[in-house]
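Hello Y.,

Per our agreement to keep a running log of every chain we model this quarter, I'm adding this entry. I've kept the format consistent with earlier entries: sequence first, then predicted structure.
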Amino acid sequence: MNIKTNKYIWFFFGVLLAAMVGAYLANTLSAPESRPLEYNSGNSDELAYVTVRDPEGNIILETGIPVSENDEYINESNAHYLIIKVEGKNAVAIIKQEDDRESDSSQSGFNSNPSLFPQAIAAQADKKNRHVLIYHTHNDESYQLTSNTSSKRPRGDIIKVGEALKQALNRSGIKVTHIKNDHGPHDIHAYSRSRRSIVSQIKKKTPDAVFDIHRDAAPSRNYYGTVNGVEISKIMVVVGRSNPNMKTNLQYARRVKEIADELHPGLIRGIYIGRGDYNQDLYPTALLFEVGTNTNSLTMAERGARCLADVLIKLLGKE
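Predicted structure for the entry above:
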């Protein structure tokens, strides 16, 4: 085999390798097969929501999050439901059988499932120099009682909720990177756009946790709460079940709720386990928080965020 032939062979393999790397990166940044269903657009003050009932007709959940069959919901009292039927804006759920539940739900550690950024798991062991990444896939989300609209682009009220969380964490010594990028418009592709923001930051630093801060679109009664006599917006944790490492993220969500139930009972409305990955396949401690709903006020949402900070401070070992 002569030198010229060798050059052609190496050139061919070089092009093939470049194509494979490009395909991998494109998949990492977009993950189109695991995007959540489309959220409410946020362009109307009369946002639609789904009502989930048990077989007897009792309301279990009202939410603007996309609801699909086989989604799950762990309510404030830790009852675990499985959604078995969805028709339009109505759904039916049953209690999930005991032997189907996560056997490791009470553990506070993390399993060894791989992630796209495996160094994140090693970072869990270091109790010093804590760092959190906060971002907003739907950065336009706003609160009607404050802004007279549910959506303001490019910077909705939800950015201020993220800032309230950041400042509360900063006061405890936890470093926070708050991404305020515009990921609009508010559509199914917003998660692909926010994914790029996360990846660029994770490559620079290794945070201890990654939080996507949203607000729901459900009747205000679902998120009204009080802590020490002060009105606050409750919070719902969302975990994506299309994430192949979902058990790790769900474990982390359960720890958040466990600590919240101890520090601020009633703060966490529940944990929703929905279709899609919500970019949580990128990181084992990535969660989505719904802080209040569109019909709450920004002030109540900021108070809820500060209460959440108390929970995260303890979780991150900074109490």
